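User: For my dataset I need records formatted as: sequence, then structure tokens, nothing else. Please produce one.
Assistant:
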Amino acid sequence: MEEFESIEALAQGIKVKLDSSSKKKILALYAFNATGKTRLANALCEIDSDNETESNGVKVLCYNAILGDMFKWDNENYILTFYSNSWIAKLVLEQGLENSIIDNFKNIVNSNIEPSFNFTKGTITFNIASGDDSSETNIKISRGEESMLIWSIFYTILETAIDALNTDEANRTTPMFNDLKYVIIDDPVSSIDDTKIITMAVKLVDSISSSKNSTVKFLITTHHALFYNVLVNSFKRTDKGNFKSYSLFKNNQMLKLSKQDDSPFSYHLSVKELIQNAIQNNSIERYHFNLFRNLLEKTSNFLGYNDWTDCIVRDDKQAFIRLLNLYSHSRLSDLESRELSNQDKTLLQETFNTFIANFRWNSKIL
């Protein structure tokens, strides 16, 4: 296990791992929410930045929150707007990638929803093309579908970059990726179901595994256990010599990076251990409440309970549920101080220990 005192130090450590070989390198990193995963990805995306300079091309290809911020939903007109002067929009237009984006989007969402691009206005509208009277135009899509469209745009660009670099430089359709060094993908799964997550992971593995260019390094970070497990299991079959997997935890403000061995990654065991360590070290923070809720939900699903709250046993159950819900909202938690009252810490400790004892919770249960 390696320990780092800051996100910046961790970013440098990850960069060393990516650059440690002249061969293609692929790293998958699992990290709980509130660990600093997104800040890590953003720091790495700034490596050799000057990303959007047409003369130099793209050196770091990133899927992160900054990419998502390029798109804004117009609730009044049911239109998704985007920055039409970005290098991404220009590349899609110049290379004629619209149909590939639509195909990738439809393959993931598995529906008849079809986006329509207007590069002059910088807008995307959505239609249902059923071929009969039930066709609909200019519809509103869900947050998950919006997320999948943005991912489909990035994934299509990634496919284009890999295909270009697999081709002799003189014959490439675009010089944009001639100097590409890193591909950083931060948590592409958001508000989507497990079937779509598996589809995304498998397609991503296929594309990265098809890369023949040894100079490009890949990092994929995620908080989603299923997505991580599909990546790990798939890459071990297709890119075993080039692939490494890690887990990132935070304890007493120290960031701890652990290399995963060949055993399956068990999300529930990691959550249990993380909460137990926080209790033992008196280092409970707001995100531990969110982790505990995830553990309750997993246990409830496994045992066939109607609701995760059925796993909570205490006299003031409703008060604790309200507290758990409050601290499980990441945006609220980010805005407020990390310091918790001793009463709240005690409530979590008592409820968690009772839960572990009542359900005889161990690796054999889940």
